[in-house]
Amino acid sequence: MNSQPTDHIPVLTDIVEPDVAGSPPFINDTTRFLDSLEADLTTVIHEQADELVHNACREMEALLLEQVSDRLKAELPGLIAKVIAEHFNAPARTN
Questions:
Q1: pLDDT by residue for the chain (95 residues), tens digit each?
Q2: C-alpha–C-alpha distance, residues 41 and 64, integer Å
Q3: How far apart are CA 31 and CA 29, in angstroms?
């Protein structure tokens, strides 16, 4: 089951001392890891949110453009007819 000889027991030979701040090194490593993870998550989430907002703006812009175009197409014949009628029904102009 164990591939090591039974007479070879690993022994910790390095002295582990707290750093200047008083935290053990593994806590500092964990803190650095969590800070790095937080920074990475923040960056990825911000980029995703930015992309979603830009896509939503492009979709809204396309929808508004289509609505304005449809409205202009619907109102243009009436507007042209009104201008022509006003032009021919107006009193004669003298130049």
A1: 455 556 777 777 766 665 555 666 667 788 889 999 999 999 999 999 999 999 999 999 999 999 999 999 999 999 999 999 999 987 766 65
A2: 34
A3: 5
